[in-house]
Amino acid sequence: MKAKRETNNTDWEERMISRIDHVSIAVRDQKKAEHFFRDILGAVDGAGASDPATRFFWQIFSLGDLSRLEIISPTDAGSFLDGFLKDKEGGVHHITLQTTDLVKAMARLEKHGIPFFGHNEYPGGIWKEIFIHPRHAFGVLVQIAEFEADDWLSTKVKFPPAIRWQVDRTENGATLTFAHPGGGKVSLNLNREESQKLAKSLQEASD
Predict the structure, then answer these.
(1) What is the value of pTM for the model shown?
(2) CA-to-CA distance for 173 and 187, rounded, in angstroms?
(3) Percent of the chain clearing pLDDT 90 (strictly above)
(4) Separation of alpha carbons 26 and 92, rounded Å
(5) Is residue 61 part of a domain?
(6) 87 with 54, same domain?
(7) Stretch (H or E) spanning 185
């Protein structure tokens, strides 16, 4: 049997990407796209706003427990999306990767000779970003950003700040719902035996 490779703390600390946060889809018709993803597929609206400087509108959506997407569209002629949407109604524009430290992420990219552009920090540090051009990322526009995911999600899909978990009794056991470090919340259905084992494990861990 092949031995499992162990990962030490140094390796873990050097991982600059926490997760894929969302996929961004550019469209010509924002309302039509929102109707499809929200009203038909069940996506939940999160944060959204217009950006006058680059002439586009963005809207974050949550799908299921942890999946998210962003719908972006031009708001006026001269938008940076004009070229992308020139011959089509829409398409995947970029993927967004979350990092805990954008400065360290930039340093690591520079160390490995990977160019990036579009470094921007919003007031208060709520969002910091850079982009890697598709020519340097196998045909995909990659956005790397530092942020707190819950800041951009609907209250329908996340806990209030002071709550990290919730236990609900069910007919066959319990449902454990807890805040996810990547934003939002995730639920786990447990039968009675599993609930009892979990309670015992938590008690033993706290002794």
Answers:
(1) 0.88
(2) 13
(3) 88
(4) 6
(5) yes
(6) yes
(7) strand 185-191
